[in-house]
Amino acid sequence: MDASPRAAFAGTTQSSSGQGEHKVRWSAWFRCESSFSLLLVPGQPGVYVVGEEVIAPGEVASLGARRMLAVLEVGATDDLARALSRLFTAASAIRDRLLNARCFVRFAQVSDAAQREAVCAALQNWLAGAAHAAGEARREGVASPALLPAGF
User: Fold this and answer.
1) Per-residue pLDDT tens for 98-143?
2) R_g (Cα) of the chain, nearest Å
3) Nearest alpha carbon to residue 9 among 96, 98, 99, 126
């Protein structure tokens, strides 16, 4: 499978033979306050994204600032429910943020392992590119975050 970041966010990946696209149906973003927030997450294979709500640079929260999500983690797994629940264990690197900040989760059920890895890799590549672009913008004195393509 080959997937561009834009295609992964838009919800499609193309097979390596170029024969057809596979739709990826993302859930809506939902608040992740505790492991109980994950009760409706299926125990199916898929891809997930965890984000923390942040205020746009240069804006004040009390004045109705524009809210954004900073991506904390992207992952592919054979069991979405188990993988997301593990984020609340003491061994998780983002546990404290999940418990103390406004965090949200989004997932897509993807049964095909190759497609799952392609979508996850595309998201991680986008994240790395966005981080690089943000670093360049800060050096130039412009702090604007990279926007997600439509559909994600």
Assistant:
1) 999 999 999 999 999 999 999 999 999 988 887 777 666 556 655 5
2) 16
3) 126
- How many beta carbons lie within 10 A of that of residue 92, not counting itself? 14
- Token pair recorded at residue 21: 């696209």
Instruction: Report the distance separating Cα 143 and Cα 71, nearest Å.
Output: 17
DSSP collapsed to 3 states, the chain: CECCHHHHHHCEEECCCCCCEEECCECCCEECCCHHHHCCCCCCCEEEEEEEEEECCCCCHHHCCCEEEEEEEEEEECCHHHHHHHCCCCCCCCHHHHHHCCEEEEEEECCCHHHHHHHHHHHHHHHHHHHHHHHHHHHCCCCCCCCCCCCC
Task: Output the six-digit token pair for 117.
Answer: 């890895």
Is-contact 144 24, C-beta < 8 A? Answer: no
